[in-house]
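Mods, move this if it's the wrong board.
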Amino acid sequence: MSSPLVPGWFDVLFMLVPLFIIAIIGFGVFVAVRNYRAAKRGGVDPFAVDTELKVLAMDSAALAPAAPSIEERLAELSRLHSSGLITDEELAQARMQALSGR
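Not the wrong board. Structure tokens:
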């Protein structure tokens, strides 16, 4: 039922746009359900998965600061000794620990 004031393609567009919107909403629901099930299968809380991933990332060794090398540790110990913050005995003990890898 076409009107002389409304072009014919408008009727088609009027039917396609709501169908397109319904398809997008349906796809969003499909993705949400799929992600929910995958999270449950993986043993995580689906509603807090982003927080759990952030905590895991913060606790991982990949984000931990790198341990100083033996050379850096020995240089730091020498600096502390020369400034008088540690004694000869403490320096010797700390050097032994640094060289043994502890």
